[in-house]
Amino acid sequence: MTLVDNSLTYPYNENNLAAINNVKSLISKGITYINTPIMAWGVDDPWPDPSQPGPTNWASLDARMRLIIQLGGTPVITLSEAPWWMKGQLLPDGSTRPITQSEEWSDIAYSARILDNKMGAWLHLVQSVAERYMAPPYNVRYFQVWNELKGYYDPMTNAYDYNDSPGEPNGPNARHGYTYMYNQVYNTLMQVATSLNIQTSTVEVGGPYVVMDTWSSANESNPSDLTKAYGNYDQRSLDVVLYWLQHKAGAGFITVDSSNSNKDNVNITDPFTAAQKFADVTQWIRSLNPLVYPGAASLPIWWAEWYAQPYTHVSDANYNNAVKAYAMIELIKVGGSVALSWGGLGNGPPNTGLWTNTTAGGGQPLPWYYTYKAFKDNFAAGARIFTTTVSAPNKVEALASDTRVMLVNKTANNLSVTVNCTAVMLTPYQVLVMNI
In this predicted structure, what is the pLDDT of residue 14? Predict the structure, then answer.
């Protein structure tokens, strides 16, 4: 359930080999889904030269995919980013600025969309990726389309271009809508599956991969009617989901993205309360009329990037673990499917990752790793989840399956609790899994 950490792809040396092997063992034992983009974030451009008829630079992505298989993970591919020559940046005056080769790995390139007249080349790349990695030994069946609608923000309208318009394909323009691109990608993936004699029903494609932004108040530019204790939801994010559900060619899951912090970095409640956001978004999607928004009631809901953590950079790894555990419990209770944590590395004081860095002596599991693994082992898909009654929900949270209960101490104090007549002492911010 996490992205492969880039440190695992660095050349081995005598100082960090043991740490890297430690992390490999942790991933093999504790993580189910492992996602990688087709380029960027540690993966090379598979088609850097536009004069070539197709992508040939597969070494980096092949290595990443081999590592995923070696670790025993279920591979997920995110179809993002794209070669520099396929992309352009939409400017405030409505014109498009094509990306140059020297900007390949710049923030400008990361925040650019496919050019309207390069959609054919993009789909050729998607087809090549699918043909290579749907087949053995990789057998990829899960695909996410694009990343956080990067490049699809329109500065002229102060909104996302999420429509199904092809844009202006007669030139190097960046005007097409995300749903148009998604549908082209979806159809391409289904065609590849058919050509490889793979049942299309087994190929799961997800979108729209939009960030579900919240703000500290409804005074921002696009407030919605959806307000919670931690903030007001941005209508633009909601609009993307609504439109995509109505106009998608098909989908295997819905994928979104968020953190328990507000967009304006003004947090008006505690991180535990704000960590309910993931469950709240899931419930909002499920509340939509499935006759109007097909799939809202039935498609699995994924979090392409899932960030739940204390607001400040505290050194208490147990506090971090408790916030994350609480967020995941609330998500599981409302039927959330998959939460992909961006990277596994616990870098620095926040201890937000699953393990310590892979320098010499590193690669050690953090408290969150053990909780993460406990979710996989005891509360994964198919597990029966029972209703729990907690007398002091502001202090403790609980999740119960047939044989296990997970308790989360949400306070900085020792707590004495009773579980089915059994007395238990919880230390500050402790996450405890016990037999029942």
Answer: 65
Beta-carbon-side half-sphere exposure of residue 7 (alpha carbons within 13 Å): 23
Q: At what angle do helices 178-195 and 119-133 cross, to 10 degrees?
A: 40
User: Would you place residue 336 in the very low, low, confident or very high pLDDT band (cuts 50, 70, 90)?
Assistant: very high
277-293 mean pLDDT: 98
Tokens matching residue 33 = 């889904």
> Is there a contact between 302 and 281 (Cβ–Cβ < 8 Å)?
no
Query: Which of 141-150, 202-211, 213-222 has the lowest average pLDDT?
Result: 213-222
Q: Which pLDDT band holds residue 144 (cuts at 50, 70, 90)?
A: very high
How buried is residue 320: exposed, middle or buried, by Cβ count under 10 Å (0-12/13-18/19+)? buried
- Average pLDDT of the segment spanning 320-341: 95
Find out whether 333 and 302 touch, Cβ atoms under 8 Å: no
CA distance 367 to 325: 10
- Calculate the alpha carbon distances from 183 to 30, 33, 180, 390 in Å: 34, 24, 5, 45
Element spanning 244, H or E: helix 235-247
Would you say 204 and 142 are in contact if contact means Cβ atoms under 8 Å apart? yes
Strands (E) located in 159-299: 159-160, 204-211, 214-215, 223-228, 231-234, 253-259
What is residue 352's predicted lDDT score, i.e. its pLDDT?
Answer: 67
pTM of the predicted model as reported, rounded to 2 decimal places: 0.95
**Do 429 and 409 contact (CB within 8 A), yes or no?**
yes
Q: If you compute the radius of gyration of the chain from its CA atoms, what whole number of angstroms results?
A: 22
Query: Which residue, chain included where needed, has tokens 């630079």?
Result: 57
Closest CA to 412 of 429, 425, 397: 429
**Alpha helices (H) in 71-208, listed in sequence order:** 107-110, 119-133, 178-195
